[in-house]
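Query structure, 89 tokens:
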């Protein structure tokens, strides 16, 4: 199982490192990542393998959202099943 993680906010040192660390704490493997800095805005999309996760999906999502709120970032985690259902016509 996989999840899509998006991060958007004002650029700062350590965003990628901290989001990656939160994933690692829960045994969530980041399989792909793309990021850009557009002027002073940081934008990142990650694909993560959640099959070995040691935390419930909703708790993981809440943990990242809380980190985002504390640091002025918008962080969303979407389960692959939801993502696929949304994009099926």
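Result returned for the query:
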């Amino acid at each position: 199982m996989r999840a899509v993680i998006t991060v958007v906010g004002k650029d700062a040192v350590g965003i990628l490192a901290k989001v990656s660390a939160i994933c690692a704490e829960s045994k969530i493997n980041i399989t792909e990542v793309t990021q850009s800095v557009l002027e002073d805005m940081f934008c990142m999309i990650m694909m993560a393998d959640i099959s070995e996760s040691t935390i419930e999906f909703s708790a993981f999502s809440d943990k990242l959202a809380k980190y985002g709120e504390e640091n002025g970032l918008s962080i969303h985690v979407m389960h692959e099943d939801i993502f696929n259902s949304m994009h099926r016509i």
